[in-house]
Every structure is written in structure tokens, then in C-alpha cells.
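FORM 7B: Structural annotation worksheet

SECTION A. Query
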Amino acid sequence: MSVVAQNKASDVLSSAQNLLESHTKLISRVRQAQRNHRRQLRTLLPSPPSDLLNLPLIPSPLPSPSSSPSPPISPLSTELQPKPIHRPDLPPAKRARLARYTNYVPEEETIRNDYSQRYVDGGEWPQNWVLGAEPERRFEEYPKQQRLLSLKKESVDNHAVPSSYLPFQQLTTLNPYKFDVILLDPPFSSSFGWDELQGLPIPSLAADPSFIFMWVGSGAGEGLERGREVLAKWNYRRCEDVVWVKTNASSNRGPGTDPPTTSLLTRTKQHCLMGIKGTVRRSTDSWFVHCNVDTDVIIWEGDPDDPTRKPPEMYTLIENFCLGTRRLEIFGRARSSLRRGWVTVLAEGEEERVQELIRERAVCVPENVRQWEKESWDETVKQLASIGGGKCVVPNTSEIETLRPKSPVRVGLMPGGGGVSGGVGVATSGGVALSVPGTTRNGRPPVVTSNQAGVANQLAVPPMMGPMGIGAMPMGVGMPVEMGGWPGMNMNMAGMGMGMGNMAMPMMGVNIDSMAGAPMWVGPEAAEGGMWEGGMGDGMIMNGMGMTMGGMGMSMGNVGMGNMMGSMNGMGMNQWNHGPYDGFQ
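SECTION B. Predicted structure
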């Protein structure tokens, strides 16, 4: 890029920065004018209009890049080198970073910071400086991911029913209705502990499949261990752990002011255990789950008015992940838990606060919020099922399906999931096919030796495969052939011979790798011998020829494979599937 083009790009960036600063100043003046006018209305009028006074102020604009620079090395450090003002030798992208971040080193592509020393000297937690932690600034450099989040939010909002609530004392009235997602933030106290939590009727409210999210504390006590125990009692299996990392950008009071603790390290996080009930395959059950849309880390400052409040982004994370529309929160709060698309079981004492907020038309209360009733919920469930094509789920769209991250296909497995074990049968003209069970991928394949083939014409095999026999097999040599077919599958066909009497009939040995299944070996050589060593065809190897049928077994036997006269019954095959894997994979 020429110097003229670089200077032009720098001027464009500078102009955009000035425009953002002017916009910020304008918004600040408008907000201040709104406050002054409302103050005058309250003082001058005997009965000021409450509807007007309760309207929200114009929102503050997002901070411009220059308002959130990287931190200096330390408040007490005097070794900070002066930053170059103008570097025409750098490309525009590096010049923009140099103007934005104080400690950016273009030659190293790094931003030098000592966050540990920052905490010692100033009390600032390192996570305060994570870029893009705010949901509105998430994935700024990835427009497709931003587009996906926007589409998910729009789809969830369009298929959400009005918010409903009920007091904790009426929790049992929800039975026999089932829910796809349950969120809990237990209010532990001297009168409510883990035993009381375990006694809640969660199993009767959980659908199959379904997910549960439960906050269990910072990890300093027994929360993680007892939380897993309670999930197991409720017939859930712990599958993930979402972590809320707190920041103290606005609540920091200086070094050494963190609350005292008995732990070895300063606790700046909270854990939310995620459990699964039933079986969900992320590669095939995209009608119910969309994986990898969000991460398992949430960075949030917290609510200074409610220190026990959990991040509101947790709702978005759940809605992006699970498409089920029957969502239940237990121990909700009047000021922060009411949300469209959710049924909220309020904590004790919160119902009165809900009524007050509704009368005040508070912004935190969604429109058309109502108390939960069985009759209205029946109609709601029917409505949700009609929207989701017979299931209570958010309908998927082609654009979301295109943009969302897909689960990686495991090496050696075909789509559909499940493991397989296979066998192969070989016979001469007039003989009966032999079936040999496969073994594990890392194990040694079973071998049929020449002694076994000559002594007995029958070979005992597992009952589901049935008894089969084998005749004598003179071997020959053929021509190797390389074949490429499906992605991830290679076929190496090396020549073998098989015949009767003095006549040799050319056949093909098959080596199929990178497919589901286990290696298997048939031949007159002992287990210690090599496979096609010395260039001679000693037998046949079928390395992992497998088929998956979504958890259903498949058996193929006595499949004819013609000989030179068309009368040789060879190539027996028997495969089975271990069934669906247990857990969320």
C-alpha cells in the first residue's frame, strides 16, 4: 500500500473518531436536558405526570475505542516508554491499534500488560480488560457470528409467549407439566440447605430430554460436589460447567479491599452446573440443541443494587443453546427474573414486589406479564407445539442452519453416531461363509490359522452371528489396485487367489480404513505373522468396515459373491451397533 493510501486511511479513521466523540457529547447534553426538565416538572407542578417522568432517558452510546484503552503497566510504574505519535511505515491496521492501545508493540503484535502487578498496586482484576466482553460488542471482528446471534435473538423473541409467574408455595401445582429447561439459583440460608434443595420435585417437572442449570457458588465450599450429587438424585448427568467471571471496574476500592476469604486465591467467579436428562446427540438432534453458539464463560460486573443477582446473559446463553420453549426458572426475583418465554417460580417474598412493579409500570417488568394458571398454560403449550411443527421448540431457519457452528465429525465414524463391530466371511466354491467378530481399534485382530481351517470345518462364533464353516483356501497373487471413494475412506485392493484343485481363481483382498468399525483378519497365518508380508497374499484384512444405522443393529449374511461359474456362496457379513451412546456428545 502506498504512503498516500496509508495517510488517507488514517485520516478516515481520525474523522470517524471525531464523529463518534461529537455524537457522545450530543447524547450527554440531551440526557442532561431531560433530567433538568423532569426536575422542573416535579417542583413546579402540584401533580406531575408520572407517565412522562417514568419514561427512560435516552440511552448512552457505546464507548468509543479511545475511551477504553489498555491499562498501563502499573499505576506505580515509571518505566512506561513514550508512544510514537506517527508511524507512517506501519500498515493502517497496525496504526489503528497503536492509536487505540497504549502498550501495543507493532513489531511483536502484542499488548504488553502486567495484570498481576495491576492487581497488587491498584486492586483491579485482570478480567476488567477483556475486550469484547459486553454482549453488544461481542464478535466485532466476526460479522457472520454477529449475524447468527442477531438471528437467534429475533427467532427466540418471535416465538416467545408472555411471561408468567407463581409463588414458590405453588411449585407443586406445575405437575404434571414438563419443561425443557430448568434454571435454579438456590437461596441458601440457615433454613434452606442442600437437603431442602434436593427435596424439590424437579424430577416430576423435567421432560425427557431436558437440561438443568444450577448455580452452586464460587467453588470455595462444597457447592461443586454437593451440586453434582443433587443433579444425580434428580436423574441428571452433569455435562458442562458455565463460569461467571466477575469484574470490578466500577466497584474497585483500591488494593487490599477485596472481602476477606479463607481460600488460597481471591474468588472472582461463580459456577453454574449444567445437567442433561435423557440422550441428546448434538450432531443429529439439531431440532433441540444448537451447540457452540456461545462459550462457557460470562464476564460481567454484577448488579450493585443486588449482589446476589446472576448475569442476565445466562438467559440468552440458554435460549441460544436449547431450542425448547418450555422454560422454567425457580427462585426468581421480581426485579430481574421476569422474561418473555419463561415461567418464573418466585422466591419467598417476591410476589408482593411483582405487584408493586406492575402498578408502577417498571421497565424491568415485561408487557402482558400474568400469573400462571393451568388453563392458560394448556393453551400456551398447544400454541408452542403448533409453532414448532408438533414439538415445543423454536423453529430453525435455513440461514441459522448455515451460520451456526456444526459439531465436528469424529475421525473414523460416519454421520449418525454409534459404534459398530463387524465381521467378514470367506468361502470357496461349495463352502459356507465364515464370520469373524471384530475387535477394538487398538487391539489385535482375531486370526483364523491354517491349523484351525484344516482340522475342523465348523467354527464356533458368538451366538448373534451364528455358526459358520470354512474350506481349504489355496492362495495366489494378484495386482494391487488403489481406489478413492467417499471422503475419509481409502480402499486398497491387493491381489489374492482362491481356488479348488489345480485351478486358481483370482479374487481381491480388501483393506478399508478410516471407516467405523474394528480390524479383522482371516488367513492361514498365525497371529504373530504379518499381513501381506513379502508381497504374498496370505489372507484378507478388512480394517474397520462398518455401518451405522442411528443406534439400530444391522445384520447381513450369506450375501452371494459370484465365482467363475456363478455358484460360489461367499462373503458373509455380520455387523451390529452398540446402540445410542449414553450422554450428551
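SECTION C. Observations
The CA atoms of residues 104 and 172 lie 58 Å apart. Residues 64-68, 75-80, 413-585 have pLDDT under 50 and may be disordered.

SECTION D. Sign-off
Analyst initials: ____
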